[in-house]
Amino acid sequence: MDDKNKKSNETTDIQETFIDKIIEVFTGLKSEDRIRSRKLKEIGKELQQSKKKFYNYKKDTVLPAFSEAIYEIFRNSQSIARYFDVKTHSKSIKEFLFDSFVTNKEREVKDKLSKEKLKVFIISSADPNKSIQEVKDTLKQFVHSFDTKMVNKINETYNQIVNLSYLISYDWYFVIHKFDSNITEVNFDYKPSFEVLDGKYIADDITAINDYLTSINFNEDFDNVLTYLHQISSDNSLSDILKKIIHQLRTIKRDEYLTKMIKVITKDPYFKPKNFASKEKIVQDYIMTFQTEVRETIEECIRDINKNKVNKLLLEVFNTTIIVRMKNYSARINEFLLSKGIGGGLKYVEPLNYIKAFMLDICKGEIKPRIDLLIIKGTWESNGLTSKYTQLLDNINKMSARVIEFDEKCSDEGTLGKDLKKYSGVLKHDKNAQTAVRRTIVSVDGEAQSIIIECINMTVDLGKSIKLLIEDYNTKIPKLIINFHKIKWDFTGEFNADMITIYKKLSNMVALLKRYVIEKPLMPVEPKKED
Fold this sequence. Notes:
Shape: elongated
Number of helices: 21
Radius of gyration: 42 Å
Strand content: under 5%
Number of domains: 3
Helix content: 55-70%
């Protein structure tokens, strides 16, 4: 730009500033107010020149033509609104879209992965681990079947449904009733008589409608939405109604007529509508949710399988699945901790109950009387053997005493009980108290785990020793207890059968306890009777 033109522009700016100040002195209007007023007049002129006659700029009134237009949308929306009720039926709509757009093969895979079929498939399988791996492979195959094209198609269709739902499910009656108080929601035979309304009285409603119109991109085609409506309703006429509604909405939105109305009514030429366009990625969310559901079903199956195995072992050992023997180290403490917001709790309540019952019912009730009798009346091959079996009985007594002592430590006067009493009042909200209690729980559970491992090892030793007795009894000339066949009559019941039953209980007890700890001691194979 040359110096001459530059000086000319500067002169013009100075003149305009000077003129603005003179006008401001005489009118009281600042420059920005005059600009605002001028813009509003320009917008008003555009409204007057428009073919749509929704608004009278000079009188600032909304005309019946506007209410007639939205009444038609209201009337047409009644028959399809339930298919666009995203607020209530979002999940159902998503499910329907997935089923509609995926192939028959993918639909079959999805059905195969349903919770009911998965549970039957896994739990009834002879090899659950193999079945679980097959399920994981099938899930992976299903997830990979969603290519980019399909993902975009489903996402875009759902978002279009959401955007249309803003107006199809809109409370049109509330707005229309302002124009004609005699109108009803259900009687479309009634011929409305719409009144002229002041713009400010209806401004908020027009703003809301305009925001939702702004959220719809009418340059897109709605073929997939029309397909959705046809498939879900099985009514061809509804697709025509939706086309009509889309045309009506597009007509109202054209030329930003409502936006201009709002600018003039609110005296804000800079007003901009909000955009609530849905941008959900429902396929990604669906896949994540579906994967989670399948994994949770697998975990539930594993828990059921494990529970069934545990129950089977319990029946083999105790002839019952309900065993509660511990007084203090119990589910009651876990319930208390949970009520205070501390999950997890004591880990080994079940196996400790089993151990206490095992020590009393099996070890002291069934094994000890028989070993005692053998020690007293048997002629043993050596004193060393007698000492070995005497030590086994001593181990039983020590283990039984240790379990009882451990249970007492968890009483109100024990370490855990004292901590629970000490922090009871503040446990729910005091992190330091929670940390202290958790530390005590870890310590107590550590001792419980030690008891389980010790009991497993003791039971394995018992099993080995009883196996030797069974095998010795079944030889023609016993070597461990020389007079075995003479003293067998001193036993109540059949000695060999009873000892085999006891051995099986020991074997099952080891299998039961091993389910709760990492360490897996080996159990000797079941002894066979000699011919």
